[in-house]
Amino acid sequence: MLLSSASRALAAAKPRSPEPFAAAAAVLLRRQLAAGMAAAPASSASAAGNREAFRVAVTNTLERRLFYVPSFKIYGGVAGLYDYGPPGCAVKANVLAFWRQHFVLEEGMLEVDCPCVTPEVVLKASGHVDKFTDLMVKDEKTGTCYRADHLLKDFCKDKLEKDNTLSPEKTAEFNHVLAVLDDLSAEQLGAKIKEYGIVAPDTKNPLSDPYPFNLMFQTSIGPSGLSPGYMRPETAQGIFVNFKDLYYYNGNKLPFAAAQIGQAFRNEARFSQNGVISPRQGLLRVREFTLAEIEHFVDPEDKSHPKFRDVSDLEFLMFPREQQLTGKSAMKLNIGQAVSEGTVNNETLGYFIGRVYLFLTQLGIDKDRLRFRQHLPNEMAHYAADCWDAEIECSFGWIECVGIADRSAYDLRAHSDKSGVALEAHEKFAEPREVEKLVITPSKKELGLAFKGNQRMVLEALEAMSETEALNMKSALESKGEVEFKVCTLGKDVTIKKSMVSINMEKKKEHQRKFTPSVIEPSFGIGRIIYCLFEHCFYQRPGKAEDEQLNVFGFPPLVAPIKCTVFPLVKIEKFEVVAKKISKALTAAGISHIIDMTGNTIGKRYARTDEIGVPLAITVDNTTSVTVRDRDSKDQIRVEVDEVASVVKEVTDGQSTWADIMWRYPAHTASAAEEEEASET
Amino acid sequence: MLLSSASRALAAAKPRSPEPFAAAAAVLLRRQLAAGMAAAPASSASAAGNREAFRVAVTNTLERRLFYVPSFKIYGGVAGLYDYGPPGCAVKANVLAFWRQHFVLEEGMLEVDCPCVTPEVVLKASGHVDKFTDLMVKDEKTGTCYRADHLLKDFCKDKLEKDNTLSPEKTAEFNHVLAVLDDLSAEQLGAKIKEYGIVAPDTKNPLSDPYPFNLMFQTSIGPSGLSPGYMRPETAQGIFVNFKDLYYYNGNKLPFAAAQIGQAFRNEARFSQNGVISPRQGLLRVREFTLAEIEHFVDPEDKSHPKFRDVSDLEFLMFPREQQLTGKSAMKLNIGQAVSEGTVNNETLGYFIGRVYLFLTQLGIDKDRLRFRQHLPNEMAHYAADCWDAEIECSFGWIECVGIADRSAYDLRAHSDKSGVALEAHEKFAEPREVEKLVITPSKKELGLAFKGNQRMVLEALEAMSETEALNMKSALESKGEVEFKVCTLGKDVTIKKSMVSINMEKKKEHQRKFTPSVIEPSFGIGRIIYCLFEHCFYQRPGKAEDEQLNVFGFPPLVAPIKCTVFPLVKIEKFEVVAKKISKALTAAGISHIIDMTGNTIGKRYARTDEIGVPLAITVDNTTSVTVRDRDSKDQIRVEVDEVASVVKEVTDGQSTWADIMWRYPAHTASAAEEEEASET
């Protein structure tokens, strides 16, 4: 479960705080954090301008080189749907392959693959049918829909920014509304919209009362139209409903983790600000996206992790709740220490935070623009033990890319209740344990005499008492001899006397313990990670022409969409033959590459492949040895034709770095002719 | 585009044959082929029984070992939705990875990744909104839906099988209805159902008239409810709508291929026979499935393929149209010859048939149970040049798993027309070419005098004439001096005189040719391929106990879900340390494996891993060298601990076979104790 305010509302679910204004300060702070204000208070106009210019350069390159494009463009596109073109698709495949290696394979997780089409009952149990909603208002004449909270936010912000006549009281009021926005009920939002006279931004028409809009894509399964279904809003539920089989598959042993990669769907309504679609949010705000989710099931009484030592020495930026609430910044923490000091709730959660850190930084995310932010109390579900988001800073601010939550037993219990199938684990004791158990023994005879026809209801109510209730009754009976007792099924209180029930703690032998496992859930928004990766890897360097800037995606070989290019230096047959031979060897080694016979200048070809982040280029300028060039340093070495595929494989598989390779082969000095032409692109 | 009768109806689209009975013989033949009758006429009861027993053994093993299970099982499941559990998910990932290597990487295809949610306009253009339907009838009282053709088929079959009093005329009639079933219109189906008095099988209630049910899952995009959308029924459309960008990405050069792997959705209504859901169709008949599709764009005037020689020597089972229509069997053909003799329409189509053959057989599909069947004329769309299905024989008969169609320019033209965006390619001539072109020059003056206010309409109609119409008019004018001409915009004929228009073929210089590319489309139903692979790899061998049969999935290492297991022979610490060391080396080499410390008997452990198709097992019975065992031969060799991961990698990467390895290492003779225990599982 990750992303979107609705999912957060769902996570925090009921009971909604009756007095949302209590958490106001914390929420305001969270908004500032999200906008990057707290972290960089001097958010000057020029810094914003630079950010904007950088973003334009990145996204123009991404769209021009078909990393991604708006879907169905020839039909005008659909907000929030994007296609990955060839290089984007390759980056995505690489990220997912590495995710499988890093998590599924290294941790021995059980991967599953469930359908997107989901029957209603499953999402009723999970809470999505009832709670996964945004509050909308409708233009009463045109029917255009708006997010109610967005309109109210825009109104307040506008007042604060542009109205110089505001009284200090009004200023405080608008700030307060902004702070509590996320926690307002439909009624409270509607009242504010009425009070401030907010109308439809496009038409100035009056607005309807706020109503909940479910963010799931609804559909119908089968021809009868009688089986409602939804496109899954997350992949997690497919794992929970399979818990029983997976637990059995794992030899009825805990802990174990299941994982799933797949599409998820959210019919987001938040594509507009004042009715204007803002297409530049690109891959960060979409209606269909790839999620990679892990559900790690543990014994709630033992959340230690056997491999925690493997990550416990890692240090990285963390942003605990305390730091956020006291207005401080994120800081470097040692994850081992954070767990031992209780900042992070348990070892398993800490282990995954460490593993996520390694995953993201090995992909190419800049460790200085990555932080783990702990959820504030009002962001978290009432059942959650602890929750941390991996946030990555990009030109849009800090973006939540991975959520790592200890969701306790909530999900398994919900499906257990709804389906009637026990989703639980058991621990066999090495030898039977003696436990104290409460035993309630009503006296049928006495109850019958006292309550006659109501005997059964009273008896059942007594047996259904919780331990606390029973112990309270026991002490009351012992001190006073009788006690008033509410029997719900009768709708009234009855008087229970000492003779009617005996309540005792008794010793019993137990052979096993049954329990609902807790689940630790790392949930990865793959598209968001990829977008941030694009920004972190992008840079420009001067070309030969004045003011010319050449674009480079400095992807690590692991994620580079194409690992290598092969160019004949000039368009002559003997070089083309060698180029084809090398291409064949690269294919056999499973290395994605391009062979470019166009005869463009070498400089132009380098510039083109730098722009899609190809780490290595092979120029065939000889029939026995060739030039290999590194994208970032532009260093060149000479390698034998027969050896070149294995050298490229060594670097792109991560066994060696370019620096390692450099020393083993003679350097090649670029001719003036080659480099000069780089400016002609 | 692949699978399902509705898609076939769509492919064959309009115009529906006005006299469907013409193609009767061919259709009847196709049905027999599908049922395996033509190929194996002696389909005796005992053969069917064996098939059934084999299928039960396979599917029981598959479900018990969680290769796949019905989705949402704890809620009773949903017909046609399946989850891949851990081993199934790994097999699927391996199949897709190999598909990427074999097609995308080796052919330099442009891979894209488009959303499943698709706006209506796209599927309106492709024909799916109007044509992708099944004809249904409803129980008029309960609302239960049935496939109209299924009910009619069941009725006729039942009559033929059970009614001994049938006259020869009636027998012929029922056989005839069965033969033409696929081609009956709604009206014809309805009339037959009425004529035969067919009622709802469950309730005997009367049935509604047949009505078309669209097989796409419908949904709505955005909060307004005003933008209908569908879950894509195939991935191909995402490629077609991106043609312009992809062509540009490819340097405006043909041919090139784009590819996409992704989920597709079909709200199949055919899960019941007489209202009884038949769950055993498993992965063959599903509502959501993974497709892998290639759209190879070529110049319609040149469908040669530069790499055709790489496959032209291949020989495999082919089943050309002629063989089917003359009642012969599939036969071994050389694909080079099949193309040169015109059996296969063109080289590109032939190339892909060859590549598909290599792909499937390298996965582990038995080449003797794989055939390429050419579509009969009435199966093919009117625009299609040629179409071959890769069919794999399993216990359900011959299953269409890959469709390989030359769809000509149909799809690009459809989207071009609907979107108004030209989806075409151009060929620049080395030097300008002189071409003859028709030039129609109406005389405005004469038209104005004759038609006054209608002048513009007549003029536009003249200019819009096709070449044939214009040449006909020219000759009529030359012979008769005037001609009647229908002007649609006026709704009437007018008389055109010789003076009003000049029509001439003129010579012009052209610098390039513009055209809509043809598309060759190989489309892979991944789930069907995987199911057939399960059947082809499954075998049983006797255990030690009497009558005991041990299940084995003989997967090639390429697709095996887990490549290797590591067991300490006995549960002692020094062996466990070695096992962990080996496991670490395997992980580093990217080899999926299981480490089993349970202390079960070695025989039991072998049997368990044979059943999920693990090719190699490492038994740690020493601290310096270990035993490696081959699943199929049960041969064992001894390998040094430090070497074992690289030996396993060699075999599972396909660089060496077990036979290669065997000779390099000393054999290990299994102790009686080890093998005896195999029977205890």
From TrEMBL, chains A, B:
Give the principal location in a single coarse category: cytoplasm
Q: What compartments host this protein?
A: Cytoplasm
The record places domain Aminoacyl-transfer RNA synthetases class-II family profile at 80-542
Write down the NCBIfam families for this protein, in alphabetical order. Answer: glyS_dimeric, PRK04173.1
Query: Under which name does UniProt file this protein?
Result: glycine--tRNA ligase
Q: What class of enzyme is it?
A: ligase
Q: Which family does it belong to?
A: Belongs to the class-II aminoacyl-tRNA synthetase family.
What GO biological process terms are annotated to this protein in UniProt?
A: mitochondrial glycyl-tRNA aminoacylation
Question: InterPro entries, per this entry?
Answer: aa-tRNA-synt_IIb (IPR002314), aa-tRNA-synth_II (IPR006195), aa-tRNA-synth_II/BPL/LPL (IPR045864), Anticodon-bd (IPR004154), Anticodon-bd_dom_sf (IPR036621), Gly-tRNA_synthase/POLG2 (IPR027031), GlyRS-like_core (IPR033731), tRNA-synt_gly (IPR002315)
Give the organism the record lists. Answer: Oryza nivara (Indian wild rice)
* PANTHER family registered for this protein in UniProt: GLYCINE--TRNA LIGASE, GLYCYL-TRNA SYNTHETASE/DNA POLYMERASE SUBUNIT GAMMA-2
Q: Mind telling me which SUPFAM superfamilies this protein's record contains?
A: Class II aaRS ABD-related, Class II aaRS and biotin synthetases
Record text on subunit structure and interactions: Homodimer.
The organism's lineage is:
Eukaryota, Viridiplantae, Streptophyta, Embryophyta, Tracheophyta
Sorted UniProt keywords? Aminoacyl-tRNA synthetase, ATP-binding, Cytoplasm, Ligase, Nucleotide-binding, Protein biosynthesis, Transferase
GO MF terms, alphabetically ordered: ATP binding; glycine-tRNA ligase activity; transferase activity
Q: What is its EC number?
A: 6.1.1.14
Q: Which reaction does it catalyse?
A: tRNA(Gly) + glycine + ATP = glycyl-tRNA(Gly) + AMP + diphosphate
According to the UniProt record, one GO cellular component term is: mitochondrion
A Pfam family that the UniProt record links to this protein? HGTP_anticodon
Q: Where are the transmembrane segments?
A: none
